[in-house]
Amino acid sequence: MSQYQQILVPVDESPISYSAVEHALSLAKSQNAQVTIVSVVAVDPFVGVDFYAVAPAITEYFMQAEKSAQLRLEDIKQTFVRDGIEVKTRLIHGVSPTEGILQVADEISADLIIMGSHGRTGLKKAMLGSVAQNILTQCPIPVLIIKQ
């Protein structure tokens, strides 16, 4: 088994993200690895900046999403700190989740990504896409997918 030094863990508000965090915590302990937790607050690419100026409700939604993500990151960070694991957090916005995750993986020279998969199939997968599937197909480093 390879020695992992830098583990990236993308999270969202789903329970499966927290399962991925638990796996990362366990692996980081055994490998003495550093961990970076990332959350991506995606902005709809079809919505222009002008729309935000005239739609305060949408602006408020994204501000709340960012605040929620920041609180989630801080909460998860404390789990790693309590166990003496070196951990950093990143909040990315303005790009798709896949782009954000791959960008951070490259920036930190991650050698493993641990992430949850919602397990969508069929129409849900076609309509909503699969970040996990995108990461698996586009990422050059090992990816550990935690399923529900």
Could you explain how this protein is built, in words?
- The chain has 148 residues and is of the alpha/beta class.
- The protein has one domain: Rossmann fold, CATH 3.40.50.620.
- Helix content is 52%, strand content 21%.
- It has a five-stranded parallel sheet with strand order 3-2-1-4-5, with helices on both faces.
- Helix 4 crosses helix 6.
- It starts with 5 loop residues before the first strand and ends with a strand.
- Mean pLDDT is 85; it is low at 45-49 and 124-128.
- It comes from Acinetobacter amyesii.
Summarize the structure.
With 148 residues, the protein is an alpha/beta fold. Helices cover 52% and strands 21% of the residues.
List keywords for this structure.
single chain; 148 residues; 6 helices; 52% helix; globular
